[in-house]
Amino acid sequence: MLKRTLILFNHDWDRQAFAGLASAWPQTSGGFDLFSFPSNIRLAWFDLDRFVALEAQRARWQGLGAVVSNHEQFGALAAALLAERMDWPGTPVEAVLACQHKLHARRILKQVCPEAHIPFSRLDVRYGGPIPEGLQFPLFVKPVKAAFSVLARTVHSREELAAHVRFNIWERWVLRHLVEPFDRVLRQRLPEAGTAHSLMAEAPVHAPQFCLDGYVYRGKLVDLGLVDARMYPGTQAFLSFDYPSRLPESVRARATDVARRFLQAVGFTHGGFNMEFFLHPHTGQVQVIEFNPRIASQFSDLYQRVDGLNLHEVVLALAQDMDPATLPRRTPTAAVTSSLVYRQFEQAGQPPPPPHRPTGRQQRAFREAFPDGLWLEFPMSRDDRARDFKWMGSHRYGIVHLGGSDTADLHRRLAMASGLLGWPMPGAGNAPD
Predict the structure, then answer these.
(1) Helix/strand/coil for 178
(2) CA 87, 91, 97, 100 torsion: positive or negative?
(3) Structural domain boundaries of the chain?
(4) What is the Cα–Cα distance from 138 to 342, expressed in whole angstroms?
(5) What pTM did the predictor assign?
(6) Which of 11, 83, 190, 245 lies deepest, with the highest CB count within 10 Å?
(7) Could you say which architecture CATH assigns to the domain 209-421?
(8) Contact at 8 Å (CB) between 233 and 427?
(9) What angle (nearest 5°) sits at the alpha carbon of residue 288, between those of residues 229 and 312?
(10) pLDDT tens readout for residues 343-354
């Protein structure tokens, strides 16, 4: 019999996907929602070691036998710490730390895969602090530890950088409390990486992006596929993720080779992963954007539609020390599929009105027309939307997943779905000025 699995920080994509597997994979959940009030009040006193100790007590009382999490901010590290404490299968703690500390990961990549690294440096500036002299612009600036592309942006001058890192008291409080739980564990387990309360700078890169998904089981890496990423024109904001990739197998082979060398270097011997890459089309060079020591939950539905493979079931199998290659595959329902992202951008420096929220009638019409469709919306308060525009450069308010028999059919279905929900079709004139 399968042991009951503890799913940490089980929200959004994960909540839906894991719930659909509950009859075959016994499970329970723990953690809190960072993006919902009052659940996110727990951020004020959150400590990873204390959280893991309490979940370990709970695991013993309830007879749990495995743990998983696809949550980037806290979950992946918490699951690794708990698996280690309970002697369950899991990703090594130091490997998670090395992947999530973006600057340390860059240093390792430069050593083991120099052809795939992007020039980088630590940016010696605290949030809101003075800007050092001698910087050469433009720079692509991002936090050493963050998720969802928060505060990742190209800046063209000292003045633009100063504005980018200027925060009010509340914003500084949020940033400190998002990073400190990770940094506390980092100081104990990987001190050579240096503090995560910092920014880093990279040479700006303008090239198409793609993702490599896979897992490592008992030290052996298995690549599952590539997902193409499209951006809103003139921005760094994702418009869609498309599967299967249109890239040649040679690109997949190069990306997998880079992944294998890097993951071996950081001691990643078990678990699901997602890696983001740039591809320079004229030279064929691949460069690593970042490493994620967990699956990309948003892509699980894409793989299931085309390949019959559920990535959430893959990580449940890994948590039980089962070889995911032995999992049965479902019947594919589409030849191509897409995760379409609906965003708002500021126009002439001003935020637009709140996005339309589909009415009950519109939601029913969508479900009747597309019983296989998946959609999420992310309603936010005015202040939260303003923070989105500042920290991420746009406000993501919805996502739709659909499949099609070919690219033309998929595009037709996505346009129809957008109309039914009352949302403008992404890319159709809704990028910033």
Answers:
(1) helix
(2) negative
(3) 5-97, 119-202, 209-421
(4) 28
(5) 0.94
(6) 83
(7) 2-Layer Sandwich (3.30)
(8) yes
(9) 60
(10) 999 987 788 999
